[in-house]
Specification:
The protein is of the alpha+beta class. The protein has one domain: Sulfite Oxidase, Chain A, domain 2 (Alpha-Beta Complex). Helices cover 18% and strands 20% of the residues. The protein is built from nine helices and twelve strands. It has helices at residues 13-16, 25-32, 39-53, 81-84, 127-133, 160-167, 205-208, 261-266, 308-311, and strands spanning 112-117, 123-126, 137-144, 149-159, 175-180, 200-204, 214-219, 222-223, 233-235, 248-254, 289-292, 298-300. The strands form two sheets. Strands 3, 4, 7, 8, 9, 11 and 12 form a seven-stranded mixed beta sheet that branches. A five-stranded mixed beta sheet has the order 2-1-10-5-6. β11 (289-292) and β12 (298-300) form a beta hairpin. The structure holds ligand MTE and molybdenum atom (MO). The site of molybdenum atom (MO) has 6 residues, from loops.
């Protein structure tokens, strides 16, 4: 049990209590064998539904809420929580917005994260052990999808710089690749063989070290829901939403630029940089405006999503061919 490795003084009363014993859906299906449902497993089924739908089983729940960092608040109204947690992109669970129920099949414990590639020493760490080491704070960030809708949401989590300190990348590491799980048994989208699973994203080391780059573990003052990328999800608010890889299992430091999921699908539209730029239209729509989810209006999209003061310097020396940010 990962939780037992935490120091005694970090354990709240609730975590010290014995864990309820229940089977998850996959174990249940296995236990059912060739379709003979025993009385015992049948009576467990309702417990499974309840435990996976409200997030109550998340062992990190006692960590939240955390203090909001006022440096990163924005002027926009925060999107209604119900909307941000039911209108999602998570292709592993379907190529539409209503994946929040499907995503409950994701098993978020145990969850091991591997840090490897060009680092002093590769290692693997459980999510709860990582959470205990990281400085948690809340940040309100804008989020702008390449599909021209946007939300404003409170993430909890820790700055990527804290992960870099833990990872100790070597001097020749130029990029950080982030990779999600690969489990077609629970993620029906991953049975769609024409996609280059698993979902991979990447940043340059300078981007990863930027103060805005954040790893979200909480949402709206609670553990981040599965549909939003539990237990660990990237937030880089100056880049289009598809860079914000969900449910990360592996961080690999590399010398070569990683082949990212969407750039393999269509590099012309969904390239590596993906910096938000209202002047560079998508092939099929303008990026000049965005639909504010939950509101009946469109607003002008800003260069770098309004975060130019933090990040513009990162791109000052880009070659002409890349300067449009695709
Ligand atoms: N693993 C994974 N991460 C992903 C995606 C995905 O399909 N799979 N979709 C991305 C896109 S396009 C967007 S807009 C955001 C949506 O995050 P949200 O549903 O939490 O708002 O997640 C990003 N991260
Ligand atoms: Mo997106």
């Amino acid at each position: 049990m990962l939780i037992k490795r935490r120091k005694g003084w970090e354990l709240p009363e609730s975590a010290a209590a014995p864990e309820p014993v229940f089977l998850n859906r996959r174990q249940l299906i296995k236990a059912m064998g060739a379709g003979t449902l025993s009385l015992a497993t049948a009576s467990l089924a309702p417990t499974v539904e309840a435990a996976t739908s409200d997030g109550a089983e998340d062992p990190s729940a006692h960590l939240y809420p955390v203090e909001r960092n006022p440096r990163y608040t924005v002027e926009r109204a925060i999107t209604e929580e119900r909307l941000a947690t039911t209108y999602n992109n998570f292709y592993e669970f379907g190529s539409h917005k209503k994946i929040s129920e499907e995503a409950q099949a994701l098993e978020i414990r145990p969850w091991e994260i591997t840090i490897d590639g060009l680092v002093e020493e590769p290692f693997t760490i459980g999510i709860d052990e990582l959470l205990a080491k990281m400085p948690l704070e809340e940040r309100v960030y804008r989020h702008r999808c390449v599909e021209a809708w946007s939300i404003t949401v409170p993430y909890s989590g820790f700055p990527m710089t804290a992960l870099l300190d833990l990872a100790r990348p070597l001097g020749d590491a130029k990029y950080l690749e982030m990779r999600t799980f690969h489990d077609p048994d629970i993620a029906p989208g991953q049975r769609q063989f024409w996609y280059p699973w698993p979902y991979v994203e990447g940043l340059t080391i300078e981007e990863a070290a930027n103060e805005l780059a954040f790893l979200a573990t909480g949402y709206y003052g609670k553990p981040i829901p599965k549909q939003n990328g539990s237990p660990l999800r990237l937030a880089v608010p100056w880049k289009y939403g598809f860079k914000h890889v969900k449910s990360i299992m592996r961080f690999t430091f590399t010398e070569e630029r990683p082949e990212t999921f969407w750039s393999v699908v269509d590099g012309g539209e969904y390239g590596f940089w993906a910096n938000i730029n209202p002047e560079v239209p998508h092939r099929r729509w303008s990026q000049a405006e965005e639909r504010v989810l939950g509101e009946d209006r469109k607003v002008a999209t800003k260069l770098y999503n309004g975060y130019a003061e933090f990040v513009a310097h990162l791109y000052a020396d880009l070659p002409e061919s890349e300067a449009l940010f695709k």
